[in-house]
Amino acid sequence: MKKIAILGSTGSVGKQTIDIIRKDKKNFKIYLLTANKNHRLLSKQIKEFKVKNVILTNKKSYLIIKKRFKKINILNTLDDIDKIAIPKLDYTMSSISGFNGLKPTIKIIKKTKIIAIANKESIICGWSLIKKQLDKYKTKFIPVDSEHFSIWSVIKNINPINIDQIIITASGGPFFDLKDKRIKKTPKLATNHPNWNMGKKISIDSATLMNKVFEVIEAKKIFNLELKKFSVFIHPKSYVHGIVKLKNGLIKLVAHDTDMKIPILNSIYNDSSKIKSKKINIKLLNNLNLNKVNLKKYPSMNILKLVPNNETLFETLLVSANDELVDLFLKNKINFDDIYLKLNQIIKNKLFLKYRLKKVNNLGQIEKLNEFVRLKTKSLSVISKIK
Asked: Global pTM?
């Protein structure tokens, strides 16, 4: 039986991972589940898979689970992953959203043979720390985002020096075909993604195209390539997820339905996996409709010009400020267009410029800066008041 752990088992990716395992229970043993608040769903998962180790970070939910399950190991903080006595895992899914996923991702690497990561913040802000652990414990890494998994599946056995160009596709979000500029871009409209069923935060990032800024930064780190080798094209139907041109002249693309279970399942089973999927959509392949990104419509793509070649704390600044601005928009405290305008002002503000040159040395640096930037951004009424 494959021994596995799921960090963030009640979130979207965690639930889809559970769904895949449910269909093949005899071949899997879940040793660890983690969640934040959803004690009801977590309780069902514990019972169904007879899980003996659980971490629930919300205090109230933790006390409920603790009272409900008296014979299993239940902890209240992700910092205690080190204290859990489990055998060497075959596979770990790291799908805790946000910065909360970085520390447990780093901690669990030594306990698993394979780690699949679906957490953008971990890779963008802490890749050098993750890579160090991966190398130290000889743990295999698989990216789970559809774009990165597609690229990885094509180039995993190819020397980076032989890669000429990589195209990452973007749906363009709900406002791609918006003709009437007078329509107010409300949180309700911005979270109505045309292709994917995603959470509010990532839906807003898709609407601004910040998700593609983050994905290019991720890909640069994961595949150890220069930024100039990446480009983003709008592909409204989200059928093709990555295109790779090799220096030998071959061009390889990966297409699949808009279903996250496809990369998740393939990260678990590799090439032996099977999934019910639609037939090849020839109509879509005949009309991929790839478009260059209109920088007037999606000015956030200009941020890629500011990304330093080396890994620095700039990425933490970028992610933290964007997170808070998206939150302000969802609470109707700023307008949609303010997300980019204010983000651009923040990352260029003299208070934060020094972080473009500061190398990432440890997790504490990232956590401290994340908290500082969030507090500064949250307290703003106008950017000019930052001091």
From this structure: 0.91
